[in-house]
From TrEMBL:
One GO-annotated biological process of the protein: polyamine catabolic process
GO molecular function list: oxidoreductase activity
Protein name: Amine oxidase domain-containing protein
Species, as recorded: Exaiptasia diaphana (Tropical sea anemone)
Domain of life: Eukaryota
Gene3D superfamilies, per the entry: FAD/NAD(P)-binding domain
InterPro entries: Amino_oxidase, FAD/NAD-bd_sf, Flavin_monoamine_oxidase
Amine oxidase domain mapped to chain residues: 57-300
Amino acid sequence: DKKSPIPARVGLSLMGWKPKTQAEYALEYLEVDFENAKNAELTPFQGIIEKGKDFFLTDERGMWSIYEELYTSFKDKIKLNTTVTGIKYNSSMVEVTTSDGEVYTADYALCTFSTGVLASDMVTFTPPLPEWKQEAILTMPMAVYTTIYVKFPTKFWDDKEIILYAGPTRQSIAVFQDLQRPGIYPNNSGLLLITVTGDEGRRIEKQSLEDTKAEMFKMLKGVYGPNISEPTDIYSPRWTQNKFVRGCYSEGTVGMTSKTFENLAKNLGNLYFSGEANNEEWYSYMQGAYFTGENQAKSIVKANHCKEKPQNCTVSGTDSFRACSPVVSTTIMSIWLLQMFIG
């Protein structure tokens, strides 16, 4: 696949899809914007292929319950409510400075910041991240995918899992999801999920939840009439306003290639990087973060094993650890947004 990357708009046009009506743009929104968090002009054509089945999790124990067994053994070593402000790295150690002036030193560190944080000035890297690393980070910016859960005393919307709202402009198109349908939440949940993306999502996330609730109510009255019940509650995560994440998940821009993911994951001395953005197959997905974290942890263990027993390693350029036999365990110290693996 040596062709130059093209926007989805170009690829879809070449295939004969050229929307003209608002209804057609709404259908495109469902297949492109709703899946990729940005419009066809900004989405890479190779990125619109579905990766598999999506699941809607409603388990009251929350997502962390899935990973509880992974961190319970070192839970007492996890330092929370601490912001990393500086990372100094070389080929023999990593030094992390926090906002309260504490300094942590380790043989190796695994950086799990989002690309939004890496692209900001929130953390000072010494030496600065090389240009090839910065380019890869900027090629995988954080997406604006705004989910708005609105609760009503009674259901008035269509009895369909997906409801498309073709607003008066392309920017006002939204997707409604009926969360009162059997098998999703308990009966009579009264929940309607509204999803918007891109600039519209960014605008909405900047306003108060009360303003958003009033705006959603007004929009729904325009669709279902003035006599619908008023919302009783609202919840929206507003990820773009969280400075420790700065978006919902990474979503590649036109120009991303396999080299982008290779450079994102490439270590700088003893500083390693992981996260969903680093996984070419599963970027934007939770399993992408899991897989890259696991792979990089193994790489760190191998590197440490080679450091302790160099006679067991076959040197191959600067990545001599890749020739080492695997070691299956290490000790982990976790700091806010940064996991430090100490050999």
